[in-house]
Every structure is written in C-alpha cells, then in structure tokens.
Amino acid sequence: MSWDIFIQDIPDDITCVDDIPDDFTPSPIGKRKDLIGKIQKDIPEANFSCSNWGNINELKYSIEINIDDNEECYSIALHIRGDEHEATAMVRRILLSLGLKAFDSKSSTGLFKTETE
Predict the structure, then answer these.
(1) Domain-embedded: residue 116
(2) What separation in angstroms does the CA of 3 have from each of 6, 31, 52, 116?
(3) Residue 110, C-beta contacts closer than 8 angstroms, at least 6 positions apart
(4) Distance between CA atoms of 51 and 69, rounded to whole angstroms?
(5) Which residues make beta-bridge pairs with 65?
(6) pLDDT, tens digit, for every residue of 21-40?
(7) Which residues pair with 76 in a beta bridge?
(8) What digits encode the pLDDT tens for the residues 107-117?
(9) Can you give the pLDDT at residue 64?
(10) How far apart are CA 46 and CA 4, in angstroms?
(11) Residue-range definition of the domain harbouring residue 51
C-alpha cells in the first residue's frame, strides 16, 4: 500500500477537514533545520543526507519525508509505502515529535489520528 500524509498548521479544535474555515491561512510550522532536528532527535533512523528529502527505511515499510528547501516551512509531506500498520506507528512518532497534526489522504475525515485505535 502507498499513501501520503501532509503535515501543516491545523488548528487544535479541528476534527475533520470540513471544519476548517474557508478563510483559514496556515502559519509556518517552523524552521527547516529545527524540524529536521526534532525528527532526528526522536527518530534517529531518519536519514536526511539529501537536501530536502529524508528517508526512513524499515524492513516492512519506507517513508520519504519531503521538507521545503526554504528556511521557514509551511508543510511537510510524508510519502509512505509498505505495511500500513507499522508505517502508521512511525507517522504517529513523527507527528508527536513535531507536535503537529496532519492531513491523511486515505482517511474518511481527512485528518491523521495520532491516538491509537
């Protein structure tokens, strides 16, 4: 299976994409080097040797982490392939390390749930 997750500034009270006001403008989520630092601190297996791509390669899944080249970032994209259950646990780790929420391309609500189900 493959799917994408889009991390950005999502208000805390939003539980579904439809709840986001039409006039909502997301704020920056942080400086590129700080975002990478947070991910690498909590997930040392994340490799950011390429300028704007990080990778987490595990036996049953892989996650490509695309972070904007700009110093101030507005979003991060995760491109996931492989075992959904194991990859989902890693996505939760990434979101918790960043303290952010994400849009999930395969979720019925459009948001990624950070709590375990």
Answers:
(1) no
(2) 10, 25, 19, 19
(3) 16, 17, 18, 103, 104
(4) 7
(5) 54, 78
(6) 889 899 999 999 999 999 99
(7) 7, 67
(8) 755 777 665 44
(9) 96
(10) 17
(11) 2-6+28-104
DSSP sequence for 25-93? -PPP-EEHHHHHHHHHHH-TT-B--SSSEEEEE-SSEEEEEEE-SSSEESEEEEEEEE-HHHHHHHHHH
- Asked if residue 50 has pLDDT above 60, the reply is yes
Domain count, the chain: 1
DSSP annotation of 101? E
Domain membership of residue 46 (yes or no) is yes
Asked whether residue 19 is domain-assigned, the answer is: no
pLDDT at residue 117 in the model = 43
Domain at 85, CATH number:
3.30.310.80
In whole angstroms, what is the distance from residue 47 CA to residue 29 CA? Answer: 20
Query: What are 53's two structure tokens?
Result: 């791509």
Q: How far apart are the first and last CA of the chain?
A: 19
Is 34 within the bounds of a domain? yes
